[in-house]
Design goal:
globular; 331 residues
């Protein structure tokens, strides 16, 4: 009997599944495509042996993620490769604004007018990546921040649009650099909060770099899937879920969750609140109605009963046989 089902085997869904499985829950992941990874996948798009990342390629927040750090994904083959310069923003005259590991080198590339402004903007947060990441890479209502003063100070700068933040700078290099950093959120530069994304990416470069995984982005979901299997989880590919009735098994119906592992045991971990709630791409199913519990008799050829959508919970519903059996994924 399953405790949770995760739909989508991208890095967010797999991370949510691993966090649940590490706490002793029975978890299965269903992915519509033939391979896992979602936006963090690697494919041979040109010649055999030449691997390409069609979506995400550089992972500054993954390398600095509190969740990934706790998982120890290096045990499953994930290796981060760091370039000498994380990022550069070129200009038509042949010069470039450089986001380097060093704050000083980055400031110098912005020109004499804006070097000091850049230093002053980041100075309150340098050396505090661990607390900033723990406080901001989570759901904000899960408790008080670790460092309330830094949290509040960062929030004042982060809440504004990057278009407003750019007014601190006089020349185009600094403005172009921050516009490029903020563009990762795929929103207008006049949107509130875009300054926060830009500052966070800059701090990530100075704290841990902007690495790429050896072998391509596929190494990230492959490592997550390996860790999930270690804790008893299963990943199915080539299985599209459009509604709850498409799922081949019911989730656990007991109101008492399985007892979590004791501290120090192989499955023990920090409470899930430390990493926030599951992202939108990974949703657990609702529980099956009480009338469907246990191994009830059902017509031949019918799959076990699953939970009905909210609008149809007046009576139990049973899933039709899936058109294709889910295929366990092996990296």
């Amino acid at each position: 009997m399953l405790d949770a089902v995760v739909i989508g085997a991208g890095p967010n869904g797999l991370t949510a599944a691993v966090e649940l499985a590490r706490r002793g829950m029975a978890v299965e992941v269903f992915e519509a495509h033939a391979t896992i990874g979602g936006g963090a996948r690697t494919e041979e798009l040109t010649l055999p042996g030449f691997r390409h990342d069609p979506c995400s390629a550089v992972h500054p927040l993954a390398a600095g993620s509190p969740a990934f750090t706790a998982m120890g994904l290096e045990r499953f083959g994930l290796q981060w490769l760091h370039p000498d310069i994380p990022m550069a923003h070129p200009f038509p005259d042949g010069t470039a604004a450089v986001l380097a590991r060093s704050v000083g080198e980055t400031a110098m590339s912005l020109g004499a007018h804006d070097a000091g402004t850049y230093r002053r903007l980041l100075a309150p947060f340098l050396g505090k990546w661990d607390s900033l990441a723990a406080d901001f890479l989570r759901t904000q209502w899960l408790g008080l921040p670790r460092d309330p003063v830094t949290y509040a100070r960062f929030g004042l700068a982060a809440a504004q649009p990057v278009a407003l933040l750019d007014r601190r700078f006089r020349d185009q290099k600094a403005r172009g650099l921050f516009a490029g950093l903020a563009a990762h959120v795929i929103a207008p530069l006049t949107s509130p909060g875009t300054a926060g994304a830009a500052i966070m990416f800059a701090l990530a470069a100075h704290a841990g770099g902007w690495p790429v995984p050896r072998g391509g982005s596929q190494a990230v979901p492959d490592a997550l899937a390996a860790l999930l299997r270690l804790h008893g989880g299963v990943v199915h590919t080539d299985f599209e879920v459009k509604r709850l009735d498409d799922l081949p098994r019911p989730v656990r119906t007991s109101s008492t969750p399985r007892r979590p592992p004791s501290p120090g045991s192989p499955g023990s971990a920090t409470p899930i609140a430390a990493y926030g709630t599951a992202p939108a791409s990974s949703r657990s199913t609702t529980r099956c109605p009480a009338r469907c519990r246990g191994p009830p008799p059902r017509p031949a050829g019918r799959a076990p009963c699953t939970s009905a959508p909210p609008a149809a919970r007046s009576a139990p519903r049973c899933a039709p046989p899936p058109t294709a059996a889910p295929r366990p994924y092996r990296s």
